[in-house]
Amino acid sequence: MADRNVVKHKGSMRLPSVCTQATNARSQTEDVPVCPQSGAVGGTRQDPRLALHTPSLQSRAQTCLQTRPAPRRLLESPGFKRFLRGFCEFPAAWDSCAFAVRNTDSAPACSAVCLHQAWGSRLALGRAFTRWPGFGARGRLRGSGPQLPGVQRLQGSPPELGGQAAAAAGSPRRLSGCRLQRPADTHCPGSAWSSGIRSPRARWLWTALSCLLGGLEGPLATRNSRPNIVLLMADDLGLGDLGCYGNGSVSTPNIDRLANEGVKLTQHLAAASVCTPSRAAFLTGRYPVRTGMASSNSMNRGLTWLGGSGGLPTNETTLAKLLQHRGYRTGLIGKWHQGLSCATRNDHCYHPLNHGFDYFYGMPFGLLNECQASKTPELHRWLRIKLWVSTAALSLVPVLLLVPNLARWFSVPWSIIVISALLVLLFFISWYSSYGFVRRWNCILMRNHEIIQQPVREERVSLLMLKEAVAFIERYKRGPFLLFVSFLHVHTPLVTKEKFVGHSKYGLYGDNVEEMDWMVGKLLDALERERLTGHTLVHFTADNGGRLEARDGDARLGGWNGGYRGGRGMGGWEGGIRVPGIFRWPTVLEAGKVIDEPTSLMDIFPTLSYIGGGILPQDRVIDGRNLMPLLEGRVVHSDHEFLFHYCGRYLHAVRWHQKDCATVWKAHYVTPNFHPAGADACYGSAMCSCSEDVTHHDPPLLFDLSRDPSESQPLNPDNEVLFDSVIKKIEAAIKEHRASLTPVPEQLTVFNTIWKPWLQPCCGTFPFCGCDKENDILPTTP
Question: What is the DSSP string of 461-503?
């Protein structure tokens, strides 16, 4: 029982002289407040590593050391150290592997036995082995041998070597069958594979691992460790808009099927409450403030023009680039919204193809109301009204200067009248040349680097993207592939096919949600048709919460955030950052499982790195955490202790996950002011401000989300005895977090986000841009 508890607590012990690249090491002892649910007294946590020194584990390790000695020069070789370093990517193994690795006299085979016996995971051993000299960067033998197969985790009880794990790793009868002296003498499964490895040391270790992982008498249970990956992201979808999250008025059978056949997360959080920074965090696994994709200007919290000069920096590593380096074919279908060009119209430095995608088909910006000529303008609506009023007022100046001449009161030089009129005309042209042609400048459809529709035909674009997504699956069905489908749904203007109009009980917005669900179903059908369902990880989510301010008269055009307070653009309120999180991988993840632990969109980056066999960048902070141990049930708590909720560059709220008693505290230091008074959103300005019309709280508003998820009952020292200790803990975390930030160029400054004619993508001769090549170009293989 003690060993079983070890697996549930993931330690962060740094492996001496071997795992020197480990990061995010935390102290195992810290003072914590009293748990409000249980009333248990807080104090020093027990170090789970102490439980490792059990007679059972020590005896098995000693037996291993005595029966399998090996040359010391092999143990000390750089190649073997790189092999063991691979385990640094698998924190769940650290505690269990501590004793084995600490015994430096142990042979590689014996270390592998002890690692395997404690963890029970073939997957980690297979991936770590690809770091041995003799293997290429993509896990393929440098010789003529076949591709290294993925290694499947054994079913059993890893802590005490239950089931097959005990038989494979702890049985002396099997160990005695492994002849490790010479590869030629081995009778282990996979010995034929070792003939393709040039390095003698690599063949020696491959032979050992073949014996340890497969055994002599048992079959080697394998699967491809690099599945296909399909990421589905909705635009401005509320958490409560789906049937699997409690909506009864909108029908979403296909998304609900994903949840029933996979794992559903109930505290899945976006790193920002607007799309550009949220998507940047999703792609990079880092807070937007680290990448420069957070704005200090409330008006330009996202990219507003394709002709702007800001975007996701080219030195950032995206999940697509990571998997591309691992041999994945990567495609993005749909919305990008991470910038396009830097210095010239065609340099496309921020283009998806420069961020790891092999193929792109979609809108580099996204949908706006302006993409439909009949809709009310959405982009900077109130600014445009002010510009019209200013232009009208300034146009009166030359008229008033003309009146004295016409009335013959006194003479005003005609040069002054003409100059004033020209100045008014220049002012009008300076803003109308951009805001007057938003549909032509921003509503563009591209295939790779080529513009194929300008402006886009909004009534057809969704079906074209669905066709491209299905074609991508069919083209790369032999895999592995990464397909990121970034839906244009459910952002305004809610372009919906006629057959779905009036289909839901929630008006046009509900119709648009149901059309998106239909598209999800078509993608799932394509996977089933190609027999890829069991070998494909599908993840469905949204970039941020529903937009409450979107209205057309009394009709609501935005989503429902499931009873959580706030919505899109509102800093740290739950309604703006809590998004759907559904994972389906039939051969790996338990169907119908629900996890109520804080997770983040930033977690997708390290999770896909783990699944695809990639290596996380070591030269930067990765804020996401690998979700696979949580999704598979190997751990019961999320790795996140603190999550920081920004509004632009301003920290609005902090979440503390107190794991020892399953409490989630949340402190709000800044909240937006809703208007009109008593409203639930910022209806007067279309989006809440981050820094201007806000309220600063000292002490902060504190909520216990585990008991008050709607954030309706703020705590204070009078009604919560732990108030002071919780705030103290959170403020210490803020200090540590800010110390980890480094200055980076801000991508969303006013200059970077304003429209620049020389950067405007154009199909034709600028400014006479326009084309429709969709019917003339057939899809091509990138």
Answer: HHHHHHHHHHHHHHHTTTS-EEEEEE--TTSTT----GGGTT-
DSSP string, 103-166: -TTS-HHHHHHHHHHHH--HHHHHHHHTTSTTB-TTSBBSSS--BPPPBPPPSS-GGGT-HHHH
* Tokens 């949340």 sit on residue: 666
Residue 771 pairs in a beta bridge with 454
| Candidates 9, 116, 268, 337; catalytic one | 337
Any idea how long the chain is? 782
Q: Which two tokens stand for residue 404?
A: 């004295």
Burial class (CB in 10 A: 0-12, 13-18, 19+), 279: buried
pLDDT recorded at residue 41? 31
Judge contact between 198 and 142, C-beta under 8 A: yes
Which DSSP state fits 147? Answer: B
Amino acid at 184: A
pLDDT at 42: 33
| Strands 228-234 and 481-486, sheet pairing | parallel
> What per-residue confidence (pLDDT) applies to 381?
87
Extract the runs of DSSP E, i.e. beta strands, from 148-253.
Answer: 228-234
Q: How many CB atoms lie within 10 A of CB 596?
A: 13
Residue-level pLDDT at 155: 34
Residue 164 main-chain phi, psi, to 5 deg: -65, -30
275 is an active site residue:
yes
CA distance 583 to 580: 10
User: What is the C-alpha separation between 74 and 69, in angstroms, rounded?
Assistant: 11
Residue 678: its pLDDT value, please?
A: 85
Active site annotation includes 503: no
Low-confidence ranges of the chain (pLDDT < 50): 1-30, 37-75, 85-197, 206-207, 210-224, 777-782
Residue 682 is given by DSSP the state B
Interatomic CA distance for residues 170 and 414, integer angstroms: 101
Q: At what angle do helices 108-119 and 122-129 cross, to 10 degrees?
A: 150
Q: What pLDDT sits at residue 556? A: 86
Q: Which residue bears the tokens 């006013």?
A: 750
Q: Report whether the peptide linkage leading into residue 91 is cis, meaning its omega lies within 30 degrees of zero.
A: no
Q: Annotated catalytic residue: which of 19, 110, 275, 763?
A: 275
pLDDT given for residue 14 in this prediction: 33
